[in-house]
Amino acid sequence: MYNYVRVRMGSADDAEDVVAEAYLKAARSFGSFDPGRAKFSTWVVRIASNCMNDHWRRTRPTASIEDAPEAALARPGGQERLDDLDLVDRLLACLDAEERNLVAMKHREGYRNVEIAAELGMNPSTVSSRLARALEKMRDAAPGATHGNEKL
Fold it and tell me: Among 92, 90, 95, 67, which Cα is nearest to 79's?
């Protein structure tokens, strides 16, 4: 659940807070879980999604990369990897919460558009168009942004 939330939150500290809140809510409402309506993992992810939405309502989401430990910088390629992660965080920060969620589900977790649509109660074509707009925003925000069919 942490990885699911972390990708969408843009901040490790916020993700930890949201995950803790989600686990508490899941524990408190475990009696209401109905295996006939959803898988347990789906139920828990829905709780986490609701907790993220609550968090975003309370605070303005920000994306920042935590200071890297010296050991990460000492490894070969460590700085380049941190630079890449920083770029990804900055590009995700240009998206709103829904767009970050869609991009994460599609490109981080490997969901297909129809699966995303079913999970979020959307039409698959809506998912496709919103993903396309989100990726275009990220392309436009990328250093040296170009238009066309280039991948980030």
Answer: 67
Measured distance CA(44)–CA(2) in Å, rounded? 11
pTM: 0.47
Radius of gyration of the CA atoms of the chain, in A = 17
Domains parsed from the chain with CATH numbers? 1-62 (no CATH), 94-143 (1.10.10.10)
Per-residue tokens: 81: 């990897």
Within a 13 Å sphere around the CA of 110, how many CA atoms are in the beta-carbon half? Answer: 0
DSSP letter string over 10-66? Answer: S-HHHHHHHHHHHHHHHHHTGGG--TTTS-HHHHHHHHHHHHHHHHHHHS-----PP
For 152, other C-beta atoms within 10 Å of its C-beta total 12
Model confidence pLDDT, tens digit, residues 69-102 = 444 445 455 455 545 667 777 788 888 888 888 8
- Contacts of 31 by beta carbon, 8 Å cutoff, 6+ apart: none
Cβ burial of 13 (10 Å; 0-12, 13-18, 19+) is exposed
CA distance 146 to 149: 9
In angstroms, the CA 65 to CA 79 distance is 13
**Do the Cβ atoms of 11 and 64 come closer than 8 Å?**
yes
